[in-house]
Each structure stands twice: as C-alpha cells, then as structure tokens.
Design a protein that fits this description.
This protein starts with 17 loop residues before the first helix and ends in a 5-residue tail after the last helix. It is elongated and about 60 Å long. Helix 2 crosses helix 3. The protein is mostly helical. It folds into two domains: 32 residues, no CATH class; 54 residues, no CATH class. The protein contains five helices and two strands, in the order H-E-E-H-H-H-H. Strands 1-2 form a two-stranded antiparallel sheet.
Length: 114
C-alpha cells in the first residue's frame, strides 16, 4: 500500500499524485465513496473498458461470429450485478471489522505529529 499526504485547497479540491493517477489509469472521472471515517477515491471504469477485456477473453477461447456476439452479450450483462455484489460484500466486511480505521490511520501518521 502506498500513501501520500496531499493538501486540500480552500475550494475543497485535491490533486491526485501523478504516480497514483498513472498507476490506476484514471480517466476523466473518479468515484468518491464515504465510509464512516474515510473517503475512498477510485477510477470509474467505463463499460467499454470491460467490453475490450471481455472480447479479448472470448476471442482467446476461439469464439467468433454469432457465437462470439451471443457470449459477449451474456458476459457483459453479468458485469454490473457482479460489481454490485463485490461492493456490498466489501461494505459488509468493513462493518464486521473492529474499529473504523481511525486507529490504523493514527498509527501510520503518529510520527508526523512530532
């Protein structure tokens, strides 16, 4: 895990460090999620990005023509429900963990308060 302390402007704006931006291949939008005591910022993946990965996988399996098209539609239809389930599972796991993450953040940044 990499961390970087960044400033917040008077207009509540932040700048994402370049290495984070490039490593995550962030496009024009990010998703901002608020938990109890944290803000999670992650890239928004467009459906077209998933589409390319799906097609690569199906082509590597030797599918083509109508069979490729049918399997592509079937697989693409499963993406949103799968992502929704993953988010719900992550939120449930976060609620089951002891604490809110504040203790860990305090431990990580305690040496900066000196």
């Amino acid at each position: 895990m990499e961390t970087k302390r960044i400033s917040v402007s008077k207009k509540r704006q932040i700048t994402i460090p370049q290495r984070f931006f490039e490593k995550l291949n962030i496009g024009d939008e990010v998703e901002c999620i608020m938990t109890n005591s944290e803000i999670i910022i992650r890239p928004v993946r467009q459906e077209t990005e998933f589409a390319e990965e799906i097609l690569k996988d199906l082509i590597s399996k030797g599918l083509q023509g109508e069979q490729l098209l049918a399997e592509f539609r079937n697989t693409r239809a499963k993406i949103r429900p799968a992502i929704k389930r993953m988010i719900e599972e992550a939120e449930q796991l976060a609620q089951e963990l002891d604490g809110t993450g504040d203790d860990m953040m305090q431990e990580i940044f305690s040496n900066m308060e000196d």
